[in-house]
Amino acid sequence: MQKINCHKCIYYFVTWEAHQPHGCKAYGFKAKFLPSQVVLSSSGAPCSYFTPKKSASN
Question: Is the sign of the CA dihedral 42, 46, 51, 52 positive or negative?
Fold first, then answer.
């Protein structure tokens, strides 16, 4: 199973909250850890909403 890099996903965002610095627009939550880690630990399945960002060269 390949690790999902949230930083390369269109749904990932950084919050201003020090105790919850990571967020996911697809699942609608903020967390202390990367959203893909939270999804995997809570559901046992990898994130199903991962969508790569378009590269700047396109």
Answer: positive
